[in-house]
Amino acid sequence: VTNGGKTTLAEKLKKMLPNCDIISQDDFFKPESEVETDERGFKLYDVLDALYMDEMVKSIHNWMNSRTSSGVVTEEPQNTYDSLKNTEDVYILIVEGFLLYNYEPLNELWNRRYFLTLPYEECKRRRSTRVYQPADTPGYFDGHVWPMYLKYKHELEENASNVVYLDGTKSQEELLSCVYSDIIQELKKLRE
Question: Per its UniProt record, what InterPro entries does this chain match (predicted)?
Fold first, then answer.
């Protein structure tokens, strides 16, 4: 969901996990001139066609093939199991975005899937506090953003499995703790 805390959560996890990188779907938006406009004059940013998804997939594959971290852990990993401390062979890529699970070429790549949700009113409130380039036009949230969220969420619920739904109204600390613990458990399983 837009403004659900995806980027904030990803950045906090990066600081806590060893050899962790982030690829953000927002970095793959097409220029405004290439984004379609509907009959109401709304730029259709909340659809897969507004993104260079093939480039995103290529970036993920490049990272997977290089298995290196572009960054370093900036804080001592907290509550990390001894088996993960100072482990140079653990590499984690967090891919964050709003249409990740609706793009078939990506679905074979995920070890874990998290989906942040927000109720309509909270989502609209948060969205109204953000400044976008180009700016949201009047009626854009109700006429395009929210309907696309509902459409893609419905598709996800019908087609994807192993998705962990997270309540975006919970505190950042609660969400971070939940996802971090889950990732540590997944790493333990992968290393067994």
Answer: P-loop_NTPase
Exposure class string for 39-67: b at 16+ Cβ within 10 A, else e: eeebbebbeeebbebeebeebbeebeeee
Q: Is 123 exposed, middle or buried (0-12, 13-18, 19+ CB in 10 A)?
A: buried
5: left (phi over 0), alpha (psi -120 to 50) or beta: left
Q: Which domains does the chain have, with CATH numbers?
A: 6-67+90-190 (3.40.50.300)
Q: Is 101 helix (H, G, I), strand (E, B) or coil?
A: coil
Instruction: Report whether 2 contacts 98 (CB < 8 A).
Output: yes
Roughly what angle, to the nearest 10 degrees, separates helices 172-191 and 6-16?
Answer: 50
- Which residues are 110's β-sheet partners? none
Which SS3 state, helix, strand or coil, does residue 114 take? strand
Choose the catalytic residue: 21, 26, 38, 142: 26
- pTM for the whole structure: 0.86
Q: Give yes or no: 38 in active site.
A: no
Low-confidence residues of the chain, pLDDT below 70?
A: 68-88
Q: State pLDDT tens for residues 160-192.
A: 778 999 999 999 999 999 999 999 998 888 777
Nearest 5°: the CA angle 190, 71, 85 is 45
